[in-house]
Design a protein that fits this description.
mainly beta; Immunoglobulin-like
């Protein structure tokens, strides 16, 4: 198993002093990408969508609090974008190149994950069966990121690194984890 821990940093300078910590771990083994996000701190300053009775595939999740992952096979242009909402809603997109030809990835018809929450924390765990998209054992380049919606409606953008002049999770240069 190839496993790594991560800690995300906000693009917006004001969020660095917010007291929020967004970290977790990722693992790649036997065709399954395992993700665990841990959000800790003053979560009462955020809008964290409540669980919905029938979660499913939804577009536009990044317009609110959304935990994300981008992954690609080294040396190949296509990549995937995973969106996970604390509500239980999700989406998985395939892109043919940088922000090109965004479309739902049909290799996964569902993406079950668990969300636990309490005062000052939220944990989300997911296991993505990628064997229909990526050959098991293939190396992966991964970017872990998140959009957090403040209680005032403003969005902050969190990632392993922010290499551009603005928050841009699609930059392959920022797919920093190699599994």
């Amino acid at each position: 198993m190839n496993e790594r821990s991560f800690r995300l940093v906000p693009f917006e300078a004001a969020m660095a002093a917010s007291g929020l910590l967004l970290s977790g771990r990722i693992a790649w083994a036997a065709g399954v990408l395992s993700l665990r996000y841990e959000l800790n701190g003053p979560t009462d300053t955020l809008i964290l969508p409540a669980a919905v009775p029938s979660p499913g595939r939804r577009d536009g999740l990044w317009r609110h609090t959304c935990l994300e992952c981008f992954l690609a096979v080294p040396g190949k242009a296509p990549y995937w974008e995973v969106n996970l909402s604390p509500s239980g809603d999700w989406n998985l997109y395939r892109l043919s190149g940088y922000r090109s030809d965004l479309r739902p990835e049909t290799a996964l018809g569902s993406l079950p994950f668990t969300v636990e929450r309490g005062e000052g924390w939220l944990h989300l765990e997911a296991g993505l069966e990628l064997s229909g998209m990526v050959e098991p054992g293939s190396p992966l380049e991964v970017a872990i990121c998140a959009v957090l919606e403040g209680s005032d409606g403003t969005l902050s953008h969190w990632a392993l690194a922010h290499g551009g002049s603005g928050p841009d999770f699609h930059r392959r240069e920022d797919f920093l984890l190699h599994l």
